[in-house]
Amino acid sequence: MKIRVVLICICMSLLLTACSNISNTLSNSSTKGDDIKKFNSYIELLNFKQGWLSGVAKFYFNEFGTGEEINIKKEFSGFILFPTAEREGEKSLYGFHKERHTKLPRKYQADRPSYGEIDDKMLTLCDKTDAFIELYFKDVTLYYANKEYEKDNFAKGRELHKKMVLSYRELSEAADDFSTAFYPKMVEHEGAELPGLKKKGFNIHYYALSVLLSGREISHMFDTLESGGKDFLEADLAQYEEVYNKFNSNVSELKKIYKDKDQLKKEGYSADQVPFLNQFVKTTEGMQTAATDTLNMIKAGTTEVKNENTGKFTTGGRSYPVGEFRRRLGQLVDEYNNSISE
Q1: Are residues 160 and 200 in the same domain?
Q2: Same structural domain, 136 and 49
Q3: How many CB atoms lie within 10 A of CB 6?
Q4: Which residues in 3-142 belong to E strands, given as ranges?
Q5: What is the separation of C-alpha 38 from the centre of its chain, rounded to a whole number of angstroms?
Q6: Could you list the residue range(s) of the whole structural domain that residue 288 is in?
Q7: 178 and 303 inside one domain
Q8: Tell me, what DSSP letter sits at residue 317?
Q9: CB neighbourhood size of 149 (10 A)
Q10: What pLDDT is stored for residue 32 in this prediction?
């Protein structure tokens, strides 16, 4: 049986937070503040599952296959999750990601306002996430790092592989189940802050959030295709061009204003925040490259295209442009949370 490495979810929904000074202006409700924290912690866990965690899972399954029985290549010479990482660093990854990605959702899960069944489904997702990263970053990583397979002829490796297949399947099912339940909440939040930001003249924040929204539309479009078993090359060209142009337009508007000193002062950005804002814009440029590669490939009906972006980030190879776009969108969400929204 095959494992689905790509999560069918709308996890790249927007983090509808506001700068601390903006949020005080737009809403004095502590309930809404709790809602924002809770909502964001749920989104960040989904981003982690769809982005980085799916990537490292794919790295493993590309090596050993997605079937119930492990596929050991004749030329196998060892497996290291991160070739450039120190082993001590590898051992600590479980604790790092558990602390960062499942602690906050668990903390806010019981907070008001209640999300009903969504809260229970999030706990299940946290449990499955913790179980998978513990298996991968403790048992599997150490087994191959210590070359135990040379001593037992992959006996333990075969058992670990079966556990990996089952654990990742359960994780993906939990994520899909949560995403389905959480989608109405995402729609409820989506764009809720934009009118207030525009009314106050906070245009840097307005367009930063608009970039995230339109980036989510692109990601959602391909999530929908994949949930139907289709490849991104089968996307409706006119539909993709519409969301592609919207995203590029929002990036263009942000780039016109994000360095304006008067506007920065008006919105309360400190000098320390400016470098992070610059990085936010740089990340959007990488997303534009991936989105343009995607457009050219859809037009050509193949990933084997040559264009102005070839060799920069995404064209061809195993890191196809939609995956690269999602990865950078997840990065953008982190940057938004850690700079623009604070």
Answers
A1: no
A2: yes
A3: 16
A4: none
A5: 17
A6: 193-342
A7: no
A8: S
A9: 19
A10: 61
Contact present, 145 and 202 (Cβ < 8 Å): no
Which of 168, 191, 214 lies at the terminal end of a domain, its last residue? 191
Position 186 scores a pLDDT of: 73
For residues 61 and 174, state if they share a domain: yes
Nearest Cα to Cα of residue 50 among 290, 326, 321? 326
Which backbone phi and psi does 84 adopt, to 5 degrees? -95, 0
The pLDDT value given to residue 82: 61
> How many angstroms separate the first and last alpha carbons of the chain?
45
Concatenated DSSP letters of 117-155: HHHHHHHHHHHHHHHHHHIIIIIIHHHHHTTTHHHHTTH
Give start and end residues of each alpha helix (H) in the chain: 20-26, 30-48, 54-64, 87-97, 103-109, 117-134, 141-145, 149-152, 155-189, 194-200, 203-227, 237-257, 261-266, 274-300, 321-335
Question: Could you tell me if 9 and 46 are in contact, meaning their C-beta atoms sit under 8 angstroms apart?
Answer: yes
Return the residue matching tokens 């179980």: 131
Structure tokens at 221: 């479009």
Euclidean distance between CA atoms 297 and 295, whole angstroms: 5
151, 168, 191 - which closes a domain: 191
Residue whose pair of structure tokens reads 């079937």 in the numeric block = 67
d(CA 194, CA 209): 8
Residues 269 and 153 in one domain: no
Grouped pLDDT means (10 residues each) for the chain, 342 residues: 34 35 38 73 82 84 94 90 50 69 88 88 95 91 92 96 96 85 74 87 94 87 77 92 97 96 93 90 92 89 68 48 83 78 54
Chain-centroid distance of CA 107 in Å reads 21
The rounded distance, in Å, linking the Cα atoms of 121 and 181 is 8
Q: What is the pTM of this model?
A: 0.61
Residue 99's pLDDT is: 75
Same domain flag for 231 and 102: no
